Amino acid sequence: MATVILVRHGRSTANATGVLAGRLPGVHLDDTGVAQAAAVGDRLAGVRLAAAVTSPLERCRETAREVLRRQQEPLRPSTDKQLSECDYGDWQGRPLKELAKEKLWRTVQAQPSAATFPGGESMRAMQDRAVAAVRRHDARVDAEHGPDAVWLAVSHGDVIKSILADALGTHLDLFQRIHVDPASVSVVRYTESRPFVLGTNTHGGDLSWLTPPRKPRRGSRSRSGDAAVGGGAGPGTQPGRS
């Protein structure tokens, strides 16, 4: 199937002040965040994106705008509330240093699958709806543009961490081992047999190798999704391509 580039929004005004923004309206990128998003756009300028989907929150839409304005061909992003930030409920808008004193904080750190935020959603529910959304969009992009297509999803730290945990076959209780910085890029290629995690939390480097050829190679539609024994030949020889 297709390949998704997962981008966390750039630094926001809440990130800069140590506040858990959650789904509060009016949280925008700060100047650093705008520059970070522009840098992601430069990294992806050589990648031909077939589609773009973003969380509806301002900081993600602003990040997507900076990224997509550097594409060679115009591309309008769609929004999907299933890629929105975790609903932290009563925790929204509170300083992280204050939240760290809450009993629930220890559960979020050690057993997130058991954590439900007061007045909000559980971390398990967050993962379920985010993974379902990414896989749904990936199948749509594959059907419309072919299995070599690459598309963009702009979302939030915990949301992307939960998607990566699923792709890695890692239990949600271990997802705090995954780090996703503001404006970082992670890449997952889904196939019929398994996802391939091609990169996590990257901040630099050429990504043009993700761009599919104009004319798909013969047999690309029937690739098995098998992993290359011995590690393969690197970019340009994609996992499972026949």
Explain this structure to me?
The chain is of the alpha/beta class. Helix content is 32%, strand content 14%. The chain has helices at residues 13-17, 31-44, 58-68, 96-99, 103-110, 123-145, 157-168; strands at 3-8, 49-54, 78-79, 150-155, 185-190, 195-202. A six-stranded mixed β-sheet has the order 3-2-4-1-5-6, with helices on both faces. A hairpin with a 4-residue loop joins strand 5 and strand 6. The longest helix is centred in the middle third of the chain and has 23 residues, at 123-145. It is globular and about 55 Å long. It starts with a strand and ends in a 40-residue tail after the last strand. Residues 216-223 and 238-242 have low confidence and may be disordered.
